[in-house]
Amino acid sequence: MNSKYIITQITGGALIPILMAFLGEAITQMIPWFIAIFTVIMADLVSGVWKSFRLEIPVRFSRACRETMGKMIVYFAFVCMACCINVAEKGEFNWARWIALFVIVLELGSMASNVLKPHGINVSLNAIMKAFLHHSLKELTCPEVDEILRKESLEDIRKEELDKLREPEKSKKNGKGRDNKSS
């Protein structure tokens, strides 16, 4: 027999049980976080559809499902990575918990925005970050709070949301975002 074949068989036979034990432990850690993140993503989807109905914006379920699936893939990939790191480092820092909590906080912010927009309150992430950094140096002033929760007319918010829906149509007309200049 070929010695390379024998070495490959022996190495594979030794590594597969180790890999299966590693993945089994990682998957055991992933399942609760997948359930929590899935629940929060579905709640965000429901709040987004509710916002659209309240603002009388047409709901495109195909787009909503596509964006939701995209979120799930990205967030679940982060959790998979974090759980594998947890298993590799024997759970000393518990990366999975921190990554999952970060994702949950992001989705809670999205849900809050979806609930507040129909009431005329547009929450700006840039303003929140600016105020947070400013707050770390000193107390918030009234204009900064007003910037975070700036009151807008429902018509302005509705127009902004409709513009978001039209962005893909514009990119299709322009050749998927490229300039349509002839050479």
Description of the structure:
The chain contains six helices and two strands, in the order αααβααβα. It has about 180 residues and is mainly α. The protein folds into two domains: about 20-120, no CATH class; about 120-175, no CATH class. A two-stranded antiparallel sheet has the order 1-2. Helix 1 crosses helix 2 (about 60-90) and helix 4 runs antiparallel to helix 5. It is elongated and about 80 Å long. The protein starts with a helix and ends in a 10-residue tail after the last helix.
**Uncertain stretches:** 177-183
Radius of gyration: 24 Å
Q: Using DSSP, what is the number of strands?
A: 2
Question: What helical percentage do the residues reach?
Answer: over 70%
Query: Total domains, how many?
Result: 2
User: Could you give the order of strands across the largest sheet?
Assistant: 1-2
> How much is the average pLDDT?
79
What does the overall shape look like? Answer: elongated
Separation of the first and last Cα atoms: 61 Å
Largest pleated sheet: 2 strands, antiparallel
Output the number of helix runs.
6
- Strand percentage lies at under 5%
**Structural class given helices, strands, pairing?**
mainly alpha
Query: What is the multimeric organization of the chains shown?
Result: single chain
The helix/strand order is HHHEHHEH
Present the secondary structure layout.
Layout: H1 3-54, H2 61-88, H3 95-116, E1 121-123, H4 125-137, H5 142-148, E2 149-151, H6 154-173
Antiparallel strand pairs: 1-2
Key features?
single chain; 183 residues; mainly alpha; two-stranded antiparallel ribbon; 2 strands; 78% helix; elongated; disordered C terminus
